[in-house]
Amino acid sequence: MVYQIVYVSTSPEPLTTSQISDILNSSSGNNARDGITGLLMYHDQLFFQVLEGERSAVESCYSRIGLDGRHSSLALMWKGEDAGRTFPNWAMGYAIPDKLGPQGKDSLQSLAKLKNGKGSTLTGNTVAAELARWIIRDFKDVQ
Length: 143
Ligand code: FAD
Hints:
With 143 residues, the chain is an alpha+beta fold. 42% of the residues lie in helices and 27% in strands. The chain has a five-stranded mixed β-sheet, sandwiched between helices. The longest helix is centred in the N-terminal third of the chain and has 18 residues, at 17-34. It starts with a strand and ends with a helix.
């Protein structure tokens, strides 16, 4: 069994490639050390991240991420046990939306709209969780 957390968040301003690289560099080093695998996607100020591994490692990573001023308004899509890792080969794979198929792209757009809706929260939102699952299914095929 593996513990998984999936969330979306927003960056306060558009990030440069170099800022994304900084995040990825510290993430992949820390995650390799902590046995965490997953996926990070950034598009149009929206982050989408999957973290998976041993429960305490994933929870402490998510707590650290939650304190990071490079993004805000984290919305948890789901957390819990899964049968196995979805991204076993990525200490922190970086995914660009161009790699998504049509269903994944539509899901991402819908998720971004839901996230940006005035006063919206995605925590516990079953539609948002289903959209996130579509995105993950699409990326699982390209790793
Ligand atoms: P340090 O080695 O002290 O910091 C690592 C680098 O990040 C340094 O260059 C530092 O200057 C820079 N940095 C740290 N915090 C900030 C900040 N608030 N603003 C600007 N630069 C900063 N960490 C993981 O370990 N795994 C992840 O999967 C992961 N995913 C992330 C996803 C997103 C969307 C964001 C925004 C951050 C993510 N992080 C992740 C980074 C995490 O928030 C912490 O910054 C990091 O875990 C701290 O690692 P460290 O203790 O090695 O810190």
